[in-house]
């Protein structure tokens, strides 16, 4: 049930980076990018995730939408809705009309999407690769590599807009041959949120089966 959240959680681990012996040019860009997103009260991103494996000839696409505010988020992807208010996580599966409730625990295996723009300060080394074009827009390409040799990810390439320091896309390369590409299709800053946005309202899901795993 946490398959797609786990994939996204792994994808956002690209933002981790070690504090010592880092490329200062890459570090400056990452700091500017991080400051941009942390200054927003909330934001929404529509994204496409592509999984490819050349050896097994696999290519799969998923589309998703995520709303983030501080440590809270609301993620919709592949028939699932994951809501996290910073303490409790609700995972709703539309096909079963079922919601699982669990305590939120931010660990290294399943990183919260709400931490995506602040995690780069530990765990990975980063370096500046080159300037490139993404959809006709100039971007800076930054490569990250994990310090932990047991990390299933061995390389990530991140593309940041040279104009406004927004994240355009990133690729995550795993040791098992899987390659994930995440592309931001639409980004909306400072979307309105309230006290009910990041909580599961049972009344809006008629007949939902509730499984409390806490």
UniProtKB/TrEMBL annotation:
Stretch forming the signal peptide: 1-20
Keyword Lipoprotein included in the entry's annotation: yes
Cited CDD domains: LolA
Pfam families referenced in this protein's UniProt entry, alphabetically: LolA
Keywords: Lipoprotein, Signal
InterPro entries the record matches: LolA/LolB/LppX, OM_lipoprot_carrier_LolA-like
Top-level taxon of origin: Bacteria
Transmembrane regions listed in the UniProt entry: none
UniProt keyword annotation of Ubl conjugation present: no
Name of this protein: Outer membrane lipoprotein carrier protein LolA
């Amino acid at each position: 049930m946490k398959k797609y959240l786990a994939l996204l959680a792994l994808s956002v681990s690209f933002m981790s980076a070690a504090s010592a012996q880092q490329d200062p040019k890459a570090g400056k860009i990452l700091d500017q990018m991080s400051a941009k997103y942390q200054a927003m009260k909330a934001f929404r991103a529509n994204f496409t995730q592509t999984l490819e494996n050349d050896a097994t000839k696999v290519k799969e696409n998923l589309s998703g939408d995520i709303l983030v505010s501080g440590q809270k988020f609301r993620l919709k992807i592949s028939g699932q809705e994951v809501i996290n208010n910073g303490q409790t996580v609700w995972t709703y599966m539309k096909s079963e009309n079922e919601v699982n409730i669990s305590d939120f625990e931010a660990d290294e295996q399943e990183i919260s999407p709400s931490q995506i723009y602040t995690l780069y300060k530990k765990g990975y080394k980063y370096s500046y690769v080159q300037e490139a074009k993404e959809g006709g827009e100039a971007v800076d390409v930054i490569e990250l590599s994990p310090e932990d040799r047991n990390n299933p990810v061995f390389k990530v390439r991140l593309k940041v807009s040279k104009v406004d320091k927004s994240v355009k896309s990133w690729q995550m390369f795993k040791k098992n041959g899987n390659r994930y590409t995440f592309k931001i299709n639409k980004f909306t800053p400072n979307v309105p949120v309230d006290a009910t946005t990041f909580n599961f309202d049972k009344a809006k899901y008629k007949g939902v089966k509730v499984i409390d795993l806490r």
